[in-house]
Specification:
alpha+beta; about 575 residues; ATPase_dyneun-rel_AAA; about 35% helix; Methyl-DNA_Rec/Restrict_Enz; 4 domains; Rossmann fold; AAA family ATPase; P-loop_NTPase
C-alpha cells in the first residue's frame, strides 16, 4: 500500500540529482546531509515536492521506484500552475523536511492540481500561421515534443497518407511524416519523381527516424489550406492531454484492469466488494454484471432493442450495456472540475466467452497511466448515443478510449465446469491476483464462532477445521487447489445471524447446508471421478441420496473412520496458534 508525503525543500537540486532526463525524468537523493527520515520510505511511496514562498506550493510529484544504497525517484508530473497546500500541513515542516499525509488528502491535492492545470490548457496556436512553411512545420513538431504528445498512435496517424489527406486535405498520396532508413541514401528518400517532398532536417521518435512533409498550403481564399486543419488537430490533441498525462488519482491504490481468481469460497467477490466500498463513494458510480454462456457483446456494450414509446407503440432504440453506461459516466465526470472514480465489476468473467463479449473493446484494455493507449472507432449508433449523453459534437466521439477514472474488476474460477478459456492476448491486459485457499480464513474466524456438534460428539467442531480436513482429503487424492473449499464456501455468517439464539435449529440448518452444498459439490464436481476415495466411510458412494442418508446417521464419518481425527488435529493446531475458533 502506498504512503503519501509532503516534502519541503528550498532548492530542489540541493536535495535531488537528475540521473536520467530521457523520456522519463528520474532523480536520486543527494546524501549530503542526515537523511534518517528516508528510512521510513518504501517503494511506490508518493512525494509532493513543495517550496515555501509566502505559502507552501507544490510543484512536482515523485514516486519512489527503488530503495537500496540510493533512493531513486521517478517524476510522475510537474505543474506550471502550482497549488497552495498550506491547509494540508498540520505544522510547519521546514525543520522536519517531510510530513506524511492521509490518502484522502493526497487525492484532494492531486485533484485540485489537475483541475488548475486543465483550465490552463485552452490554447491558441493560430500564431503559427504567420511563419513560412518550413518554420511552421518544425514549430508544430516542436510543440508536439514539448508536451510529450508523440506516441505510437500519433506516429501511426501522421505516417498514414489516407488519414492525412482526409483529415487535413491537400496532402495527396503523401503523409505528414515519412519513416527514413538511415542505412540508405536519405536524400533520395525525401523525393518522389525527382521532386522534393520532405524537409531534410529529420527527427527521431520511438527509436526511428522521420522526415516532415514540405507540402503545406495556407490560402483560405482559394480554399487551399492544410495548415489550419493541422493546427485544429494539434489543439484537440493537446486538450486531451488530461486523459493521458495526469493519472495519479486512485490508480495508485488499485489496478485498473483486475481479475481475482481462486478456488470457490475464497472470498473473491468479498474482496472486490470491500475494495469497491473504499474506492466508490456513490452507488451510481459502479455497476455489477455476471457473465453467463449466453452473454454477448450486445448485452455488454449495447445494441438496438424494441421499446415502448409515449404512444405505447413499439420502436427501436439504442440501449447501452453496463460497459458503455459506466464508461459514459466516467467520461462525463472526467470532463468536470471534480472527477470521480467509476467501477465496473464482472462476476465470473470466464463463464462467457470473454473475447466475444468484449469484441473491439478488447483493444481499449491496453492502458497507459489508466487511459487506453489505442482508441477504437465508434459505430454510428454508439457515436450518437455518446454525443447525446455527453452533449458534445458527434465528430468528437468518433474515437473512444477508456479514461483514467474508470476501473474494470472481475472474478474468475478456472476450475468451474463449462467455463471458457482465455487466450494469452486477453490475459496480458489484466493484472491477476490469486486468492489462496486459506488466505482469508482469519476474517472468517473473526466474524463467527460457529461450532457444530457432529454425531452427538460432546466437543463442538468449528466449520473451518472441517473445511481444512476435507481439503486435506482432496489433496491426498490429487485434486487441484482450485477445486478445493475456501473459507466462505458456506455462508456461516448468515446461519449465525438467523439462528444464533436457537442452537438446535442452527445445527439442523448447518447439516442441511452441508448436504446441499458440500456433499453435492464433492459428488458432482471436485471428487466426481473419485467418489470411492472421498466418501470412503459408506458402502455405496455412487448415489447422492445414499450419501446424504449416511451423513444423517454417521456425520463426518462418511469421509472415513480417521476423518474426525484429522478435524480435531486442525482444531488443536488452531487453538495452539492462538486462532479464535
Amino acid at each position: 500500500m502506498n504512503n503519501y508525503y509532503i516534502f519541503y525543500t528550498n532548492n530542489l537540486f540541493s536535495e535531488f540529482e537528475i540521473i536520467n532526463s530521457g523520456e522519463s525524468f528520474t532523480y536520486k537523493f543527494i546524501n549530503n546531509k542526515n537523511l534518517n527520515f528516508t528510512k521510513k520510505f518504501e517503494e511506490n511511496d508518493i512525494l509532493f515536492i513543495c517550496k515555501k514562498k509566502d505559502i507552501y506550493i507544490t510543484q512536482m510529484i515523485l514516486k519512489i521506484i527503488n530503495i537500496g544504497n540510493e533512493i531513486i525517484l521517478k517524476k510522475l508530473c510537474d505543474y506550471s500552475n502550482p497549488l497552495d497546500i498550506s491547509k494540508y500541513i498540520a505544522c510547519k515542516i521546514e525543520n522536519d523536511i517531510i510530513q506524511q499525509i492521509e490518502y484522502q488528502n493526497f487525492i484532494e491535492i492531486y485533484s485540485s492540481l489537475k483541475r488548475i492545470n486543465d483550465i490552463s490548457r485552452n490554447i491558441d496556436l493560430s500564431y503559427l500561421l504567420k511563419y513560412d512553411n518550413n518554420t511552421f512545420a518544425n514549430k508544430c513538431f516542436d510543440f508536439l515534443e514539448a508536451h510529450n504528445l508523440i506516441d505510437k498512435h500519433v506516429i501511426l496517424l501522421l505516417t498514414n497518407s489516407d488519414f492525412c489527406n482526409k483529415q487535413f486535405s491537400n496532402f495527396g498520396k503523401y503523409s505528414i511524416l515519412k519513416e527514413i532508413d538511415t542505412n540508405q541514401n536519405i536524400e533520395n528518400q525525401l523525393k518522389d519523381s525527382g521532386n522534393s517532398r520532405y524537409y531534410k532536417n529529420t527527427r527521431n521518435y520511438l527509436k526511428k527516424t522521420y522526415a516532415i512533409s514540405n507540402n503545406w498550403f495556407y490560402n483560405p481564399e482559394k480554399k487551399k489550406d492544410n495548415r489550419t486543419p493541422f493546427i485544429n488537430w494539434l489543439t484537440k490533441l493537446f486538450s486531451a492531454i488530461k486523459y493521458r498525462n495526469f493519472s495519479l488519482n486512485t490508480d495508485l491504490k488499485y489496478d485498473y484492469n483486475r481479475i481475482i481468481f481462486g478456488a470457490p469460497g475464497t472470498g473473491k467477490s468479498y474482496t472486490l466488494n470491500k475494495d469497491k466500498e473504499d474506492l466508490i463513494k456513490k452507488n451510481e458510480n459502479y455497476e455489477r454484471v455476471t457473465f453467463h454462456p449466453d452473454y454477448s457483446y450486445a448485452n455488454f456494450v449495447g445494441t438496438y432493442k424494441p421499446v415502448n414509446n409515449d404512444n405505447d407503440e413499439i420502436s427501436y432504440k439504442y440501449v447501452p450495456g453496463p460497459f458503455l453506461r459506466i464508461l459514459v459516466k466516467a467520461l462525463e465526470s472526467n470532463m468536470s472540475d471534480t472527477p470521480e472514480p467509476f467501477l465496473l465489476i464482472i462476476e465470473e468473467i470466464n463463464r462467457a466467452n470473454p473475447a466475444a463479449v468484449f469484441g473491439d473493446i478488447f483493444q481499449l484494455l491496453d492502458r497507459n497511466n489508466g487511459v487506453s493507449e489505442y482508441p477504437i472507432h465508434t459505430s454510428e449508433d454508439m457515436k450518437k448515443y455518446i454525443s447525446e449523453e455527453l452533449k458534445i459534437p458527434a465528430d468528437q466521439c468518433a474515437e473512444l478510449r477508456i479514461p483514467d477514472n474508470m476501473f474494470i474488476w472481475a472474478t474468475m474460477n478456472s476450475a468451474d465446469q463449462g467455463v471458457f478459456p482465455m487466450d494469452t492476448a486477453f490475459k496480458r491486459r489484466w493484472n491477476f491476483e490469486y486468492c489462496g485457499i486459506n488466505k482469508k480464513e482469519e476474517e472468517l474466524n473473526k466474524q463467527t464462532t460457529l461450532d457444530i456438534i457432529i454425531n452427538n460428539d460432546p466437543e463442538p467442531i468449528h466449520w473451518n477445521s472441517i473445511r481444512k480436513a476435507i481439503n486435506c482429503e482432496l489433496t491426498e487424492i490429487k485434486v487441484n487447489e482450485d477445486k478445493q473449499l475456501g473459507p466462505f464456501f458456506l455462508n456461516v455468517n448468515d446461519l449465525m445471524d438467523r439462528y444464533s439464539d436457537n442452537k438446535s435449529k442452527l445445527q439442523e440448518k448447518f447439516n442441511d447446508l452441508f448436504k446441499d452444498k458440500i456433499i453435492m459439490y464433492l459428488f458432482e464436481d471436485a471428487a466426481k471421478q473419485k467418489k470411492d476415495f472421498i466418501f470412503s466411510g459408506i458402502e455405496n458412494p455412487r448415489i447422492y441420496s445414499e450419501i446424504c442418508k449416511e451423513y444423517d446417521e454417521k456425520g463426518l464419518k462418511i469421509f472415513g473412520e480417521d476423518f474426525t481425527n484429522k478435524v480435531k488435529e486442525f482444531e488443536a493446531k488452531a487453538k495452539s496458534s492462538g486462532d479464535d475458533l
